[in-house]
Each structure stands twice: as C-alpha cells, then as structure tokens.
Model the fold of this input.
Amino acid sequence: MNADNRDKPRCHCAVFGVFGHPAAAQFTYYGLLAQQHRGQEGSGIVTSQFDPKINRHRFHVHKDFGLVTEIYRDEKLLTETLRGSMAVGHNRYSTAGAADNRLNIQPLTVIYKNGNLAVAHNGNLTNFKQIRKELQEEGTIFQTTSDTEVILHLIARSKKKDQIDQIRDALSRIQGAFSLVIMTDDKLIAARDQSGFRPLALGRKTNATPDGGLAFFIASETVGFDIIDAEYVRDIEPGEIVVIDRESTKTGTVKSLRIHDRKEKPHHCIFEYIYFSRPDSHIFGHSVDKVRRKLGKNLAKTKPVHPKDTGDKVIVINVPDSSNTATMGFVQETNKHGGSVKLEIGLIRSHYIGRTFIQPKQDVRENKVKTKFNTVKGVLKDNVVVIVDDSIVRGTTSKQLVQLVKQAGPKEVHFRVTSPPIKFPCHYGMDFPTPNELVANQCNGDVKKIGDELGVDSLEYLEIGDLLDSVPQENGANYCTACFSGTYPIPIDSNQTKDENEA
Done:
C-alpha cells in the first residue's frame, strides 16, 4: 500500500483458531473474513490432520498475499487441501518483518523434536532483536525477518520436557505485546501478554458436529465468533495460557495456567476502542459500540461547536466507517444539553476499493480522496458542518476531506476528533508514520495551527483525561496511551527501531 494512503493507524494482525470440528478450515476462513479490517497484506491458514499411514499428524498450509476472499477463492483449498479438525489462521499487516517477504506471512510453522508447531501472533515484541541476536550467536538459523519466529525457536530450544512447559518457558522470555494462537499436533493454545495490550477471546459452539460434539474457537475479536454462530465465553486473561485438547471437548472446560506466577496491571491498547476494533465486537470485556458512543458524548460535552451565527442550521457528519457510532453519541449529547444539531449522511464511502488501487498522477494526487469518498451536496450546502472523526495522523486525508466538503458550499466547517493528538510511535503492534510525519508534531502540538493546516473554522480533540473517562475502568482496567502521552508501560529495547520499509 502506498505510504500516502497511510493516514490512519493500522493494527497489524488478526488471529483465529479452531479445535474439534472437521470443517476447521472453513470456520477459520469465515473468522478471518470477519476480522479483515485488522490486516490486509496477507493471510494464512494451517490445519492439523492425523495420518494413519505414517501414524503421525500432518500440517497442511496455505498462505499468500492479498485479502481473504482473494487467497481462498478456490473453495477446494478449504474442503480438500486444508484438511483436519484443528486450524489456526492469521491476517497480516507488517510490524517487524518486511511487507513484501512471503516467508513472513503467518502462521509460521516448524517441525521439531516434539512434533509440528504453528504460531499466529498479533502484537509486537519489544525485545525480539535482543533475543534474535542471542539465538543467532548460539547457531539458530532464521528463515524470516518476523519477530514471531523467535517464539518458535524459543519453544524448540527449551530444556523443558513437556510441550506446554516448553511454550510457557518460551513465553516467559518475550516482552511486549502478544496475543497468540499456537497449534501443536493435538492441542490448540492461546496466550496473551501480561499487559493484555491486544484483545483475545475464547468461544465455543455446542452441537457443532453431526454427533453433537463441542468445538472451541479463539479470535482477536468476537465478530469472528458471530459469523459462525459460536458463543463468546470469555477473554483470555492478560498473562494467561489456555490449553484446548480432546478432553476439553468432552468436559466443556479448558486448562488454564499463568506465564508468570506474578500478576501485573493490564495496559489495554486504548486505540482498540477508538478505531481498530469493529463496533459490533466485545473487547476487553466490553462493547466497542457503547464505548465509541461515550467518546462522542464526552467530546460534545467538552468540545462543543459554536457557529458564528447562532441561527444557522448545524449538521453533524461522520467519516465512514469507524466514527459512525461516536458521531451518534456526539449529536445525542449536544442536543441533550440544549444544542440543536442534526445527524446527516454527508460523506458516502465507496466499499469497492480493494487493498490497492491505481494512484493518481502526481499533479492530481491531492484528489485521490475522491476515489474513496463523495459528498451529498444537498446536505452540506449553506449549512454549518461538523465533521467527527476518530483520529488524525498525517493529516493529508483529513485536509482533502475538508476540501471536498467545502466544494459543496457549506457556511462553516468544524472538525472534532474523538482522540488526543497522536505524537509518538507505538511499539506494541500498531503502525503509525514516523514522528516527523505526524501533523501534530509538524505543528508543534498547536491545535489552532493544525486546524489552519486542515482549513477548518475550528478544530478540537478529546483531551486525554476525557478519553480515559470514556473507557471502562472495571476489574482494575488500565490503558496504554503511549501514542498520545509518550509514556511506555513496557521498556523498549534500545536497539528496537522501526524500519519504515516494514510499514
């Protein structure tokens, strides 16, 4: 994807896992399809099948660049190639590892002394370069540039005898953000880092098989369960390892153990609520839709719009699709407190733009936003328009949207954002441009100057305190706000720098 299109933060992965269903590959396909928004560079599915001819399990693998619907267009891949009652799947954006390296497409697989192993990872390891260097000095040969590969090698090199102990031993050495699905020959394992940066959920389906069997599922977001009519059971807890095996399908329970004996405060990524997750998902135990509505309500209470002429008609429009529900909250709260605004559909988004599209020539590059959006001119003309969006990163798309809206002839254009200015890079599985590309830094944090750059009558962001007041605080919930505050809850390896070519 061209860098000029990276005007929104990108989450780097979705994971999905199935245990106990003969159509595991098909379920995984639908689970990945529902989570396509979390990764659009590549996708992969690995299944496990016992082969009586050789008296051991075989792993079947299919991975490629592109969207889920493109990669598995031939349905025989799901019904004949990817056989087995257990599967793991992955949608990818690149974090650590070049985007154009086919070997980096997950799940990653290996055969070692205890059998087959496959790993799908959402997040970013903050100490992987240090571990990679140590392993290379000990003679380990790496096949990829992905941070996920160190997990495979740590498991394979563990001195522990039991396979689950090997996995626990390996996970105790890595730091940073990881929501993992690991598949062995006969077990499906889910694990989450101590801080719980990224979401990970457990689901199940009763009477899933013709003989009334029980199947279990793992997903980054609960929408992966909804599409296959599976029941959301609970989140994988921060620092927890969940083991699913044949006994689980008989008893309906899973085995649970801790990566470390100690428990730590969670640091959930607050951007999951702001932008990444689908509004119909439950993450960190709560409805994304409800949280986004509260973001919009708090934005309306703290950063209201004041037209120059109080008699003017004020309409509020969202930037499709991630700010839809926040915009509804903004309108509701504004009118509740005596305002008079109307929610309107002023921007129409084309849903037929694929992962990539032909870029305009340099002299008309500023018009590229028109390939994604068009205005409803009759709604905007002669009115005061308030645009509500979830974030501003580089500012290029926001600026072009403002110009597009202005062409429809509104009296005023105001911009409201349901997050604070983004000023710092993320090291926990989220991709932003480099700090000097962020419009907030280019304007030295001056909101008025950013507004002038966008060409709006006023610009306001949700303050970080009001953001934290908008998200659930139950069960000791705590959040990572490093991209806004620069305060990193987990130390970053001094050698860990982002390669711009990876994004």
Q: What stands out?
A: The CA atoms of residues 176 and 400 lie 36 Å apart.
